[in-house]
Design a protein that fits this description.
The structure holds three protein chains of three kinds. By secondary structure, chain A is mainly α. Chain A folds into two domains: 59 residues; 79 residues, no CATH class. Chain A contains six helices and no strands. The N and C termini of chain A lie far apart (60 Å). By secondary structure, chain B is of the alpha/beta class. Chain B folds into two domains: 179 residues, 3-Layer(aba) Sandwich (D-Maltodextrin-Binding Protein, domain 2), CATH 3.40.190; 103 residues, 3-Layer(aba) Sandwich (D-Maltodextrin-Binding Protein, domain 2). In chain B, strand 1, helix 2 and strand 2 form a beta-alpha-beta unit. In chain B, helix 4 packs across helix 11 and helix 6 packs across helix 11. Chain C is mainly alpha-helical. Chain C has one domain. Chain C contains 21 helices and two strands. In chain C, strand 1 and strand 2 form a beta hairpin. Chain C is globular. The N and C termini of chain C lie far apart (71 Å). Classes of the chains: A mainly alpha, B alpha/beta, C mainly alpha. Chains in contact: A-B, A-C, B-C. At the B-C interface, helix 3, strand 6, helix 7 and helix 8 of B face helix 6, helix 14 and helix 19 of C.
Chain lengths: 163, 314, 505
Amino acid sequence: MTGFTPGTGRRPDGAAFIIAACLAALGLLLLREGFAIPDKGGYAGVGSGGMPKVIGAGLIGLALWHVAAAFRSREPSRPRQQPVPLMWIIGGLALQLILLKPLGFSVASGLLFACTAAGFGKRNLWLTLPVGVAFALGVYGVFDRLLQLNLPAGWIETLIFGG
Amino acid sequence: MKHTLWGAALCFALATPALATDYMIMAPAAPGGGWDSTARTMQEVMQAEGIAGNVQVQNVPGAGGTVGLAQFASTAAGDPAQLIVGGYVMVGAILTNASPVSLADVTPIARLTGEAVGIAVSASSPIQNIGELVEMMKADPGSVSWAGGSAGGVDHITVGLLAKAAGVDPTKINYVAFSGGGEALAAILGNQVTVGISGVGEFLPQVEAGTMRMLAVSTADKWPGTDAPTLMESGYDVNVQNWRMIAAAPGLSDEQKAAVAADVDKLVNSAGWKAALETKGWANTYLAGADFDAQLAKEIEATTAILKDVGLVK
Amino acid sequence: MGTFDFLLQGLSVALQPMILLYALIGVTLGTAVGVLPGIGPALTVALLLPVTYGLDPAGSLIMFAGIYYGGMYGGSTTSILLNTPGESASIVTALEGNKMARAGRGGPALATAAIGSFVAGLLATLALAFLAPHIVKLALVFGPREYFALMVLAFVTVSAAFGDSTMKGLTSLFVGLALALVGIDGLTGQARLSFDVPQLLDGIEVTTLAVAMFAVGEALFVAGQGMRPDDTVHSLKGSVRMTKTDWSRSWRAWLRGTAIGFPIGAMPAGGADIASFLSYGTEKRMSKHPEEFGHGAIEGVAGPEAANNAAAAGTLVPLLTLGLPTTATAAIMLAGFQQFGLQPGPLLFATAPQLVWGLIASLLIANVMLLVLNLPLIRLWVKLLTIPRHWLYAGILLFATLGTIGVNPSPVELSMLLIFGVMGYLMRLFGYPIAPVVVGLILGPMAEQQLRRALAIAQGDWTTLVSTPVSATLLGIAVLALVVPIILRLRDKGAVLSQIASDAD
């Protein structure tokens, strides 16, 4: 409770209600799953559905606790966040995910590298992208070729390291 | 100058895949497991013996091999250079996970290695032979707790088959699934459970050291290294072998299939493969062609029946 | 005397110059790969084991020992400096260690981790040599009901990692427990919460969740605060050496960590992660400065780091005495033994004493080598923090994804990395602790499975849970650990109430 710092708002903490709703939804999902699973407890008496029910109930309890706590406290101040850097990094991870198979490890990971650097303020892609691809190629060389970790290869890896 | 170099490199890169027989073997499991080491041993031997120029291993883990199997069936179709390792565990996993892709969607080539399932108790257990154990099950199936591998796996199936063969209701068996061999073995040694069931290889060192007693093995013939009777000899009609196999892509022509089968045959008969089996302690249970197809069909049928009996498949 | 003779013989082999060189190479490689965020000891050993294949048995063994201990040690460095643990056993190290690094005390945090690992490694390896046959008996006493009691105790100690708000800590824990339900239920084969996605049937990988929540979440959180390019992570203040107070606060924690870690590591269902959780909880309870926990208490680094290294040695007990590989790392080690045509088993001590004692001697040498290598390296590691942030975090994310891609390059796995990364970010933003999520994911399935196993063996009789002295004692300690603080808090309720009143304004 000491974690709540005096806030700016005079209304109850809005975010807490959203969190409570998410917890309750997750709890209901678990309860539904718990009851949907055929009871195959066997000799234990507790089957596959037992634990989802317990944890689902716990989550709903926590949701209620959040609601109660939200009425008692005021909106706490949170660290101010900038959306643009977040978008760069999330975009970089998504790009790597999509391009890993078609373009290979080095290009996809080089893009992630460059996007992350951009997220941290280094927007000069002409510098960061080649550095990232070269770095990822080095990592590929060490881990795939030397240590036999199977990383997805693209045209650039085939070109440099052979098939 | 630079251009010619790049050009040459590009030509080389493009030309490489066309050179002679290359294989890509999929191990539908994480690095380190049985299927992975089967694939990597094949890779080593095929390259060393000159059966294939370049062999690569790809790991696609998940859900008893069915994730890899599904990916293999869809991406490798018609490509004779792609192989997948599999095994009896996959037969069960396809059924219990209700996998949309089955072994009918690939081209099974041959059974390579296999292992008997062993039934064993701790040395201090009062149970002396398989007959006594079955009598206990008949009297009160719940009182006999079985420690073995994952639910629906080969150990579980073997217990189910034994119960059925002995006239005990298979749904009444008290099977306690353990993750990882180590934990199950510790539970057996510590007398936490009545009896253990696992690959014979896991029990043999304990039996040699006198800490465990092997009651029976599941194969049709006695297993090297133990004089424990087979279940068949003991009067229960159960014959299970936990085997590993190699399969090729779906949609191959008869010639392509024959070429792959010939390469696998060369592999199995090579000195390198025999030496590798020796060091790994794997038994050669090579079976190919129509015999393997017939055996596979029979086992799928029996497995489906028993998984329905123990209630894992509807 | 046989034991001593064999050990001396093993040491004399291990002290030859060539062998020492192999040890140095092994330790360096192990630390170098282990230090990368997202790559834990199991992957390190799996990757580097083939490097040892070409050597003669003695050289191969010692290099392997170096890689094993080096990989275990390397994990703590990025946990402390960058808040990006590569594996579950160094999560709690990050809790206090990273707070210390933020306060400019990264040097002492790394030093206490290094020296603690050394002390624990030394004592535990000696215990392995002399006590293995006795310890293994203890391990066999533990069946499902005893493990369940141990898990309950571990759950209670997790509350030490909750931070300021019990409500938020419990929420994190329950989110972890919910995630743990995804996949096939090990006991019945029933799929739960997998929504017909086959890749989810195997559940959520602990490494993926830990790397996502810590490395990706941390990168997002730091980036979200916005900054100019060329900023560095945090400034270095003070000495990189441990002060006298640091020493006096650390040494007991090292010893306690070793005492907890070794036996827990020796149990087939124990493991380094549980040992580190229990050690952290113990340190917080025993500390004279409990208020410092969550803000950079050195005991919270010293204890868990000693515990996870002692557990690493403990893992070898069932492997060498029973032939049981109880962790992923131990399973990979089996492959290492197989190259000598040996199957570890109950007879290994009798049939191949040179090998066993050679390994133990190698572990002792590797442990010393690790300390010699790492203490001077601390100055270098701390310099990591002076790398401009954009390069540093770009590199961290590349390595964090490398671990996932290398093990399982499926789009589902990478999507999870992204989703849990965003979740880790949001939890940081709203002040929810991260560690309990991962702890819930690890402990949840273990507790559930052991409970159901115990009940199945007892045919549904719940009294089985307290029917042995060990399980009853462990559950008793857990209840006391839960109830005593509540009673104490009720006694001080007046003080707390006035505190709340003052907070509310």
